Amino acid sequence: MKNEVYIALGSNIGDREKYLMNAIIKINQHPSICLVDISSIYETDPIGYTDQAQFLNMVIKANVELSAVELLFALQKIEKELNRKREVKWGPRTLDLDILLFNHENIETEELIVPHPRMHERAFVLVPLYELDQTMKLATIDQPIKTIIDQLHDKEGVRIWKQKNGVDVFALLEN
Ligand code: GSY
CA separation (Å) from 133 to 6, 14, 89, 92, 126? Predict the structure, then answer.
């Protein structure tokens, strides 16, 4: 059983790029996860609690032989292994791994809601997601992703920080 998933990554403390890259390496080393594509890395103005450092954000696409909750636990384990720090709920963090989409499923359990309930209002999620799939429609809103991005005020705060080089999924990890 192969499931297509999109995962958002974010970091705004310490060596932000290293946190993202180490997370991707660990995700790809998982025996039941196969990395398919990664976006460029974006530097983004903080949303919510705005008195904090800028984030690096990106999105990856993967095929997984896991249920959504198994994937959640695998990502939480990786966050822990990378010594995730987050002192305040909406505050700074070394690493955040969020499941955005799991096939086209609507999932609501005690641990997890997918599609991610706030993704449609976050340009720091939708801009890298759009880079991976321009034709995507968000089921929760039934609008093309580009239309949603165009309406978001915080899109001005999302800037390319490291451009993905061509189609090589691993090129970003190498330099
Ligand atoms: O899970 C979201 C963490 N977060 C972010 C983020 O990743 N990027 C930006 N730009 N703002 C954020 N605010 C929060 S909370």
Answer: 10, 30, 30, 29, 10
* Structural domain boundaries, residue 140: 3-163
The model's pLDDT over 30-80, given as tens digits with 9 standing for 90+, comes to: 999 999 999 999 999 999 888 899 999 999 999 999 999 999 999 999 999
Give kind and range of the element (H or E) at residue 130: helix 123-132
CA angle 128, 29, 43 (to 5 degrees): 25
171, part of any domain: no
Say what the pTM is.
0.94
Q: Is 57 close to ligand 1, i.e. is its CB under 6 Å away?
A: yes
| Cα–Cα dist 172/163, whole Å | 8
Cα 89 to chain centroid, rounded:
18
Question: Which tens digit of pLDDT belongs to each residue from 69-98?
Answer: 999 999 999 999 998 777 777 778 899 999
Distance CA 127, CA 159 (A): 9
The catalytic site residues sit at 84, 93, 96, 98
At 117, which CATH number? 3.30.70.560
What domain count does the chain have? 1
Q: Which of 7-21, 79-93, 152-166 has the lowest mean pLDDT?
A: 79-93
> 94 in ligand 1 pocket by Cβ < 6 Å?
no
